[in-house]
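The freezer alarm interrupted the setup, so I double-checked each line after restarting. Inputs confirmed:
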Amino acid sequence: MGKTIVEKILSRASGKNAYAGDIVVAAVDAAMAHDGTAPLAIKAFKEMGGKKVWNPNKIVLVIDHIAPSASEGTSSLHVMMREFAKEHDIKLFDVGSGICHQLMPEEGYVMPGSVVVGADSHTCTYGAFGAFSTGIGSTEMAAVFISGKLWFKVPKTLKFSIDGTIPHYLTSKDIILHIIGIVKADGADYRAVEFCGQAVERMSISDRMTLCNMAIEMGAKAGLVGTDEKTREYFRELGADIETVKSDEDAIYEDVLNFEVSDLEPQIACPSAVDNVKAVREVEGAEIDQVFLGSCTNGRLEDLYLAAKILKGRKIKDGVRMLVIPASKRVYLQALKEGLIEIFLRAGCVVCNPGCGPCPGGHMGVLAAGETCLSTSNRNFVGRMGSTEAKIYLASPLTAAASAITGKITDPRIFG
Amino acid sequence: MVKIQGKVWKYGDNINTDLIIPGKYKFKTVDLNELAKHAMEGIDPKFAEHVKKGDVIVAGKNFGCGSSREQAPLALKYAGVGAVIAKSFARIFYRNSINVGLPIFESQEIYYATENGDMVEIDLESGLALNLTKKRSFATKPLPGFLLKIMQDGGLVEHFKKRGRFEWD
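Predicted 3D structure, all chains:
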């Protein structure tokens, strides 16, 4: 019987002939925790009596959620992480390195066919590389630190075929928002989502990361794209050969959904649910106070390019703040080299150091009651980015840039 | 046989982790009693002050969606919540609850038959839930055996301390 990508990966990692519904114990190839989750994992590790970690080379700690620290409390949690990393000889990416989900693939911790767990829900991002990656909690992370293994129920897979030609004003962010609006916040609970179809084949790796990143917003355990020449090329640049990771022709899917994107308009998730999705045109004109370009969803070079294309030679609206936060130091350096940072600064943006920025609500642009932010990040829940009385809209880098210029939610098509 | 008994706090669908415990608190401390003061703050600011030990949250579908933050089930547990019964749970919250020893149960029926303020009782082992106010009983979906054992041990840390290994290993 044929297998899906997830069934293949979890079979390999567990040594069992696994199919959807089976509970398996899988060997973990890489484990990551950040400053929002590592402190509790370290605490649990110590409470369990952990003396040494299973393999220091496979564990990564990242300080990205509040970086640099904005309070003494956070600083002491960062110290706790640095001490743990030093004691166990674990790689720690400190303040300014970038967002965990950007660093993991950039630094070679994610390979096609591998099992990666992260104490962060957006760990599903690495499915873009044909890896099985999923979010877990801190206490489970402590168990992984000790044993290098974890149990999984092999998920059923939903196949999402995205077809058509992507118009120039449309991004993979618009596409995934459109899909979430249809499937809804619990529509893929406990399942893996496999993205395929012509549109996905044409997408860059960065665009595929945006797709897979937001699989969790439908409740999915993993979002995946099979490997192809683009994946191979990405790893060639990192100096690595890869195995082919694809579902078998006769693999069994729970369901197959088809999405046609040739005529899709720019999409936006409205307050305060990610599945509250409309066409940008339908909410055009709503006033905004802040625009945030960045996050593990849309903080890559390709995203900065899209925004810079619109912002070049223009100014953002007086009274509107636009924060630009590259996803990693590597992205920042490349953006600097290619002149994007200058375009942002001349347009009136604030460029901050790599990290999560205001997305998780801890620092660097949190919102006051009554304020509205248009963000390229992935969640717009009540209280996510500061006050419970603030509003958050989620959209593409193009919509973000267009809206920063007018000071109102704006369909980017007016800028070409 | 361990039973949980308390008053019902009823909420709707898609109660996300930012409503259960806003991110801004989790970055500052691992003091769980401190975090518990802000439990459910995003949706019910009076909850943390008024919840009593053993009280039960009854909610709709996809409870705990969003972030992987274990601080969400921990904040509920330390606020005194005895159990959460929901139509369904988001997967990371589900795993986290078991791992921190917060009893959780899945049931569709109890949601429709229970009102805010009702008294309920749940048998941790059988998963049988009684609405004492309405005098009705409800079966809940049983947990796989190894997860039930972890939950009964009080979570993964206690489980490992007690047994010297992980149940699945």
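Quick read of the result. The CA atoms of residues 287 and 408 of chain A lie 4 Å apart.
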